[in-house]
Amino acid sequence: MLRNVLAFTAVRDVEDGVRWYKMLLGREPDTRPMQGLAEWKFEAGGWLQLNENMQLAGRSSITLVETDMDERMKMLTMAGIKPKSFVNGNFVSIIIVTDPDGNQVVFAQGKDENHRATM
Predict the structure, then answer these.
(1) Domain that holds residue 77
(2) 12 and 55 in contact (C-beta within 8 Å)?
(3) Alpha helix stretches (DSSP H) within the chain
(4) CA-atom Rg of the chain in angstroms
(5) SS3 for 19?
(6) CA neighbor of 100 nearest in space, from 39, 32, 17, 27
(7) Are the beta carbons of 88 and 70 closer than 8 angstroms?
(8) Which InterPro entries match (predicted)?
(9) Does residue 80 form part of some domain?
(10) How far is it, in rounded angstroms, from Cα 90 to Cα 82?
(11) Which pLDDT score is estimated for 9?
(12) What is the CATH number of the domain that holds 70?
């Protein structure tokens, strides 16, 4: 049985990527297990892995489950990160941003019982 997920995002330069994702997530990576790799662990489970990979850089898309879109929008503004789009749907709200390498990062917050994240 699967119990968790590790999301992978490829960047051209891991040090540049870490600087940007620190602004995006508001914190340092939790671990740097090897050269060219940084990882953030999330409270309810799951990891985001930033990997230096020139061939795949800019081709990743990840979705991060958000619990407070207003707070996320404030954090993005404070970090100088401009969303590409914001959709306030009936069941899910999403904010989409793009990292400097062109990877898509989606913040999603479910509104009903079927779409809401559980902690």
Answers:
(1) 6-110
(2) no
(3) 14-25, 69-79
(4) 14
(5) helix
(6) 17
(7) no
(8) Glyas_Bleomycin-R_OHBP_Dase
(9) yes
(10) 23
(11) 97
(12) 3.10.180.10
Is residue 85 in some structural domain? yes
Identify whether 48 is part of a domain: yes
Instruction: Report the number of secondary-structure helices (H) and strands (E) in the chain.
Output: 2, 7
Contact in structure between 109 and 68 (CB atoms under 8 Å): yes
- Could you tell me if residue 49 is inside a domain? yes
Amino acid at 54: M
- The single-letter DSSP state of residue 115 is T
pLDDT digits 0-9 by tens, 98-115: 999 999 999 999 987 765
Q: Give the chain's domain count.
A: 1
Q: How far apart are CA 115 and CA 78, in angstroms?
A: 28
Note the pLDDT tens digit of each residue in 51-104: 999 999 999 999 999 999 999 999 999 999 999 999 999 999 999 999 999 999
Rounded to two decimals, what is the model's pTM?
A: 0.89
